[in-house]
Amino acid sequence: MNLENTVKYHFAKSTLISDSPRATASDSLTGTDLMAAMGMTQERAAMGYSAFLGKMGISKNDRDRAIILLAEYAMTKCDKVAALRKLGAGVKPQVMHQLATFAFEDYSRSAASIKQCDCCRGLGFIEADVFTMKSHYSMRIPQWAKELGQSPSDFEVKRQVREVVRVLCSNCKGKKVVSCACNDCRGRGKAVDQKETKKQGVPVMTDCKRCGGRGYERIPSTEAYAAVCQITDVISLDTWKKSVKPFYDQLITKFDIEEAWAEKQLKQITR
Predict the structure, then answer these.
(1) Mean pLDDT for all residues in the chain
(2) Do the Cβ atoms of 182 and 216 come closer than 8 Å?
(3) Phi-psi category of 182—alpha, beta or left, where left has phi over 0 and alpha has psi -120 to 50?
(4) Backbone angles phi, psi at 159, to 5 degrees
(5) Which residues of 72-109 are buried (b: 16+ CB within 10 A; e: fewer)?
(6) What is the predicted pLDDT for the residue at 35?
(7) Contact, 124 vs 172, CB < 8 A?
(8) How far apart are CA 50 and CA 64, in angstroms?
(9) How far apart are CA 245 and CA 148, in angstroms?
């Protein structure tokens, strides 16, 4: 039994009052066995199991717990980075928690994820400058003008007026959010290689060059750096790229390692 199989037990389609197995085989796991296996996995691999449940959107508490556990792990490893070691005692936990939060968001992102529209900033509308033509009459049409056959448009004064109006955002179409899927491969991770297709005469699929075959775009590390700058301005951009960013990438990888460990423990328990 792997971690993906545990998701369906959190969204059961029917209620089973008793703990008797649905299958007739004697070696099948009952509902009680499954709950016990999940509890043991949570005890043995707390970070990995909580991170998985948070990634699948099952529990917000597990999401927060995974971030806290990663922040505690980061506190034990951050002294190896000189820029982080120099932070104050009150600032360092805040920076580690901020890095752990962005690491979880990057870890849990997929092609099905959505994010706030950067164009309208989640409002659904944007302000646009519109130029309209307005007119007015400089005077009432005199009698002599009527006798000469002049029209009212001869006394009309036109002017161009600039107005600021709210229009529907063209990027998100008013939905306030956009998909995280790659614009080239549409989340599939594969794209047509135009050069090889022309050579062979048949469509040749290859890994998408824009997203690297992931199917979605990752969170830019500059966003994490901007969030850290809201807490402290000690870390410069060059220091971030040289020493802090590799440490931030290790935190993202830590979630993948812990999830693999949690799955190994679950298979060992339910074998």
Answers:
(1) 84
(2) yes
(3) beta
(4) -145, 150
(5) ebbbeebeebebbeebeeeebbbbbbbbbbbbbbbbbb
(6) 84
(7) yes
(8) 9
(9) 81
Q: How far apart are the first and last CA of the chain?
A: 7
CATH of domain 3-19+26-109+220-269: 1.10.274.110
Interatomic CA distance for residues 210 and 189, integer angstroms = 9
Check: CB of residue 4 under 8 Å from CB of residue 232.
Answer: no
Supply the pLDDT for residue 102: 94
Both tokens assigned to 83: 């820029």
Q: What is the pLDDT of residue 18?
A: 47
Quote the tokens at residue 46: 């707390």
Sorted by where each begins, the domain ranges of the chain are 3-19+26-109+220-269, 114-179, 185-217
- Name which of 135, 136, 154 is nearest 146 in CA terms: 154
CA distance 29 to 19: 10
Q: In DSSP terms, which residues pair with 197 in a beta bridge?
A: none
Q: What is the mean pLDDT of each run of 10 residues along the chain (271 residues)?
A: 81 55 58 84 90 89 93 92 89 93 91 85 85 73 66 72 84 87 84 86 86 84 92 91 92 93 90 80
Residue 194 carries which side chain, given as an amino acid letter?
Answer: Q
Q: What is the DSSP string of the chain?
A: --HHHHGGGGS-SS---S---SSS-TTSPPHHHHHHHHHHHHHHSHHHHHHHHHHTTS-HHHHHHHHHHHHHHHHHHGGGSHHHHTS-TTTHHHHHHHHHHHHHHHHH--TT-EEE-TTTTTSSEEEEEEEEEEEEESSPPPHHHHHTT--GGGGEEEEEEEEEEEEE-TTTTTSSEEE-B-TTTTTSSEEE-HHHHHHHSS--EEE-TTTTTSSBPPPPHHHHHHHHHTT-S-S-HHHIIIIIHHHHHHHHHHHHHHHHHHHHHHHHH--
